[in-house]
Q: What sequence folds into this?
């Protein structure tokens, strides 16, 4: 899956995020969220650029309340960076591509 964004649901969250020994960026979004539509192309670009070092997953919040609760997501778009199976960095709200790259670079 390197180089692409993996879309997951609550049912796959533990298997694809919590039980993986890899750096993972989780992108929480909603179809009704305008800022999410602005951030989505940057998330896709990040997955392509960092695919060899970072797993990128996308999770729609409305059908995935358990993952939202697990990651304490209060607003979308939201990012959670997992390292060694733990959240090490969080961001909520729209983010520019340069700021997104800086957010990721600080964790890698």
A:
């Amino acid at each position: 899956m390197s180089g692409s964004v993996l879309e997951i649901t609550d049912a796959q969250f533990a298997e694809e995020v919590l039980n993986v020994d890899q750096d993972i960026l989780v992108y929480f979004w909603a179809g009704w969220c305008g800022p999410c539509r602005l951030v989505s192309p940057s998330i896709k670009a990040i997955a392509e650029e960092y695919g060899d070092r970072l797993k990128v997953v996308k999770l729609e919040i409305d059908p995935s309340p358990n993952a939202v609760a697990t990651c304490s997501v209060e607003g979308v778009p939201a990012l959670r960076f997992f390292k060694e199976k733990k959240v090490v960095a969080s961001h909520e709200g729209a983010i520019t591509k340069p700021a997104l790259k800086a957010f990721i670079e600080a964790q890698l």
About this structure: The helical segments are 10-18, 34-50, 65-70, 97-105. The chain has one domain: 5-105. The mean pLDDT is 94. The longest helix spans residues 34-50.
